[in-house]
Design brief:
Layout (H helix, E strand, L loop, with lengths): L22 H20 L7 H24 L5 H25 L10 H18 L2
Length: 133
């Protein structure tokens, strides 16, 4: 099973020099990625692995929540601005991934949820069109 782990953590270049991570934090992110690769190597696709994948997903969600709390605590002076910057960066990453999957046809019209995605993309296009002129 191939797992894409490139978006774990955040990248300082996305947020400017003031958010440069300390070496120990970079090391910690590197260790998290390494641990997730080890776990992913043991997951086999198929019906039997669904409980394990759900468990992994729950663990990653919990970890994400904990990391988000730490990051918010570190930016209490201008939390709303920090949150907005993170959301914009994450939205850009997600849109890039969706485009990649559409171009490679790993997101297809026959998949469950495709119509909801398509409706969301139409709405996003309409709103972005208004915002951009």
């Amino acid at each position: 099973m191939q797992v894409r782990l490139g978006y774990i953590g955040f990248y300082p270049q996305d947020f400017g020099d003031e958010y440069v991570m300390h070496q120990d934090l970079r090391d910690g992110v590197r260790e998290l990625r390494k641990a997730l690769r080890v776990v992913a190597a043991h997951l086999e696709p198929g019906e039997d692995s669904k409980p394990s994948m759900r468990d992994l997903g729950t663990a990653v969600d919990g970890l994400r929540g904990s990391i988000w709390g730490i990051l918010q605590d570190a930016h209490t002076d201008d939390l709303r601005e920090y949150q907005a910057e993170v959301r914009v960066a994450r939205a850009g990453e997600i849109c890039g991934l969706v485009l990649e999957h559409l171009y490679t046809a790993t997101i297809r019209p026959d998949l469950e949820g495709y119509e909801m995605l398509r409706a969301s993309l139409r709405e996003l296009h309409a709103i972005a069109g208004k915002e951009m002129g």
